[in-house]
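Reviewer comment 2.1 asked that we show a complete input and output for one of the modelled complexes. We chose the S-adenosylmethionine case, as it is the one discussed in the main text.
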Amino acid sequence: MSSKKWHEYSEDEILQANIEKYQRDDIVKFYEDFEEPRYTYIEYQIILAAVLKALREKLGRPVRAVDMCGGAGKAAFVIKSIQPDSEVSLVDLSDKMLNVARQRAAKLGLEDLNIVEADAFSFLEQDVEYDLFVYSSALHHFKDPVNLLKVSADRMNPKGMIVTIADPTTLIKSRRYRFFQFLATNRDVKRHLIKQYFQRKIKKTPATGEEFDLAEYQTYTGINDHQLCKDLASIDLHPLVHLRYPAGEPYMTKIMPYLGLCWAFSTVLCLNPAEYKNDVQSMKEDIRCQLPFRIHFY
Ligand SMILES: C[S@@+](CC[C@H](N)C(=O)[O-])C[C@H]1O[C@@H](n2cnc3c(N)ncnc32)[C@H](O)[C@@H]1O
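Response of the prediction step:
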């Protein structure tokens, strides 16, 4: 086990950890289970519908979208369900995760979903342009999300947008969040967490490598989403809409805001905010009115 410190790992080492993690059958099975209706996370439908509506109006044609690090294709399928004539690519480094998407596409008779096995940076080296990049539960798998989004923006139509969704803010490190998470897990996970807690207390100097999952790199601290937005604005990638919301199973999302646990964030970015200045308010209204739980805009 390596004793490197968290910040000493490189983007390539994190990539390697992701390649290994997303080949594991237990992990892939977890994403297969997202087929269940209770996992149809409503925020994807609502945020992506608002974005697709604005893009379609500006472009006057079907949108060319890419679900980056899309795994089993949660966002890709939502885009196709909202705008069936959109051209959608799904990119992921794990063939096993993509196979789950392939099976779902076959079941739905979606023959035009373009499935690409590649890591994000290699994919972005290609000379292709997209109107919409979606990063769903993906930014936290990178050491430098700003660089990833910058490279994506280089491949984006000047009127295009990037949507990031379902990444953790620094709130996930709060005691409040961890206590809530503990309450909401099943008995086996509770037992595992208690065991882990006591083992850590006993080991006085655990190796850093044992303390976190390198593939989930940013979850070590959570992402400082406000700082991220400032850093992105400084490279001319402007946040049009930025919200924090309580991701999770439907019953939990009702309770979490009352405990101050809007722990996930979503950001809609563009290159030219003047282009969309008249759309921002209606996008926000659509999102606020339709989400069945409390959120915060910034
Ligand atoms: C937490 S899962 C999210 C999957 C999907 N986007 C969703 O929301 O359900 C993270 C995904 O990112 C993929 N991934 C991680 N690092 C990647 C990289 N550098 N390039 C491409 N895919 C990557 C993994 O294979 C995995 O499928």
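The mean pLDDT is 92. We note this here for comparison with the apo prediction described in Section 3.2.
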